[in-house]
Automatic annotation (TrEMBL):
Lineage: Bacteria, Bacillati, Actinomycetota, Actinomycetes, Bifidobacteriales
Enzyme Commission (EC) number: 4.2.99.18
SUPFAM superfamilies: DNA-glycosylase
Protein name: Endonuclease III
Domain of life of the native organism: Bacteria
Function: DNA repair enzyme that has both DNA N-glycosylase activity and AP-lyase activity. The DNA N-glycosylase activity releases various damaged pyrimidines from DNA by cleaving the N-glycosidic bond, leaving an AP (apurinic/apyrimidinic) site. The AP-lyase activity cleaves the phosphodiester bond 3' to the AP site by a beta-elimination, leaving a 3'-terminal unsaturated sugar and a product with a terminal 5'-phosphate.
Annotated HhH-GPD domain residues: 45-197
SMART domains: ENDO3c, FES
Native species: Aeriscardovia aeriphila
Catalytic function, reaction form: 2'-deoxyribonucleotide-(2'-deoxyribose 5'-phosphate)-2'-deoxyribonucleotide-DNA = a 3'-end 2'-deoxyribonucleotide-(2,3-dehydro-2,3-deoxyribose 5'-phosphate)-DNA + a 5'-end 5'-phospho-2'-deoxyribonucleoside-DNA + H(+)
Family: Belongs to the Nth/MutY family.
A Gene Ontology BP annotation from the UniProt entry: base-excision repair, AP site formation
Gene name per UniProt: nth
Entries under InterPro entries matching the protein: DNA_glycosylase, Endonuclease3_FeS-loop_motif, HhH-GPD_domain, HhH_base_excis_C, HhH_motif, Nth
A matching Pfam family: HhH-GPD
Keywords: 4Fe-4S, DNA damage, DNA repair, DNA-binding, Endonuclease, Glycosidase, Hydrolase, Iron, Iron-sulfur, Lyase, Metal-binding, Nuclease
Amino acid sequence: MARETKAQRHERMREQYIRLIELYPVAQCSLHHRNEWELLVATVMSAQTTDERVNSVTPELFDRYPDAQALAQAQLWDVENIIRPVGFYHMKALHIIELSQALVERFDGVVPHTMDELTTLPGVGRKTANVVLGDAFHLPGFPVDTHVKRVTSRLRWHTQWRKTNPDPVEIEKQVTAEFPPEWWADVSHRLIFFGRNICHARNPECEVCPLASTCPAAPQFLAQKAEKEARKKYAAQRKALKGQRESLR
Ligand code: SF4
């Protein structure tokens, strides 16, 4: 791919994002929640598991513990039993109880709506805070998860794309500079949907990807796939030939 100017990259990012809008007209958080507290707790539990798993435990959890005051007084074993399906349940149960206690002690049980305050809460990092800002408070928030990292690197939406583990804060800074703040949460949602459904970590579906014609990583992935197919075909031909030879003996 020829070297791009900043303006050309901006133009390409906007065009690629329009294709993502066409692909996913509805962009929304896939963690079920009825208020900012439920979203905060659900997001903390969503680390290293699927949103579906989290959604499978939150109805019982929020039925038993409807607010921060209730969860702050919960027994650890009881919370562990409820959230067991999400994995790492010892640590996550402790985090959401401590988080609720901190909310009660320092914020009267009300979820704060600034990055600085949110990230003082136990178990709440920048990614979780951005989810809460964008999806609960409808403030600018651009969560950078593993899908956002991978997809934005392949699309060269930031200058850290060569790194195996690019800095999420730098990705957030560079990508959000290209979109209006009111779009940030939806840009992140669409990148996550796209990373889950098409631009997979192991085997991206470049052959059916609507961004392939403008994706800098596509030629390399397509060439690797073509080589793999050719090797498979060659191995099948050799096997067939061997079978023919043996039948002639
Ligand atoms: S062309 Fe391939 S690598 Fe590029 S965005 Fe699409 S699926 Fe991902």
